[in-house]
UniProtKB/TrEMBL annotation:
Protein species of origin: Streptomyces albus
Keywords: Methyltransferase, Transferase
Molecular-function annotations in GO: O-methyltransferase activity
Domain of life the protein comes from: Bacteria
Protein name: Catechol-O-methyltransferase
UniProt record, GO biological process: methylation
PROSITE patterns attached to this UniProt entry: SAM_OMT_I
Lineage, top ranks: Bacteria, Bacillati, Actinomycetota, Actinomycetes, Kitasatosporales
InterPro entries given in the database record: SAM-dependent_MTases_sf, SAM_O-MeTrfase
A Pfam family that the UniProt record links to this protein: Methyltransf_3
Length: 256
């Protein structure tokens, strides 16, 4: 619990840089390359969890909530996946482990340092070209969206699965950006972490308002990563269809 409190005190640095500020992310990459078998995704995941429990807490989805992510990817069997918030690459490892062999995952990360850590860990795990990290954000005046479209095959109805685990204020705007480009199709799933800590109330309210018409959402109760005292919530939302008029590019709500 004390480690979690110290982490919360560093939230300002996390918001600005994407890192805690004490070098733990680079130290994690060193730990993984020293303690996990090369080319073994399971062992790399094990090493990251061990580091988070024994060395320094990490802000990835963690082992408990990671099981929810695993189960969702297995159910959907996606061919094209998008992750918003790479951090050190842990959740991408979990998705790569269970997604179909011919699936591709693009992970977007605003911190260049985190992207470098993730690449190093993925190289050690042997992920190859199945997983790609893009340094940027969906809100960077279209630059990252353009790269996803022109280089990675994103387009109307192509995106099967989205994992959202980045800055809380970007959850809803980024979902709207995805919807505006009609990347989703009926049956696409969006899984969102940290619905209680730190929380994304506008995102959750948006989905509640559209429950049963545009979305069908399940709420998974769990705990904040790597401890059992602080509760958290993961939302798993299946896209049903666009509202009337949206097919023509209309937006039901004003931009966030």
């Amino acid at each position: 619990m004390a480690k979690r409190l110290r982490m919360l005190m560093r939230m300002g640095n996390l918001t600005r840089t994407g890192q805690v500020g004490d070098g733990r992310e680079e130290a994690l990459a060193d730990y993984v390359t020293a303690h996990a078998r090369p080319g073994d995704i399971d062992d790399v995941i094990r090493a990251i969890d061990t580091y988070a429990y024994q060395q320094a807490t990490l802000i990835n989805i963690g082992d408990e909530k990671g099981l929810l992510l695993d189960a969702a990817v297995r159910r959907v069997r996606p061919r094209l996946l998008l992750e918003l918030g790479t951090y050190c690459g842990y959740s991408a490892l979990r998705m790569a482990r269970v997604m179909p062999p011919d699936a591709r995952l693009c992970s977007v990360e605003f911190s260049a340092a985190n992207a470098a850590v993730a690449r190093r860990i993925w190289d050690h795990a042997g992920l190859g070209e199945r997983v790609t990290v893009l340094h940027g954000t969906l809100g960077d005046d279209g630059r990252t969206i353009e790269r996803l479209t022109t280089r990675h095959g994103f387009g109307p109805g192509r995106l099967d699965f989205v994992f959202v685990d980045h800055v809380r204020d970007a959850y809803l705007p980024d979902l709207r950006r995805i919807l505006d480009r009609r990347w989703l199709h009926p049956g696409s799933v969006v899984l969102a972490d940290n619905m209680k800590v730190p929380g994304a109330p506008r995102y959750r309210a948006y989905l509640r308002e559209r429950e049963g018409t545009e979305w069908r959402t399940r709420e998974h109760h769990a705990h904040v990563e790597y401890q059992t005292l602080v509760k958290d919530l993961v939302l798993e939302s299946e896209y049903l269809h666009a509202p009337s008029g949206a097919e023509a590019g209309e937006t039901a709500d004003p931009p966030a």
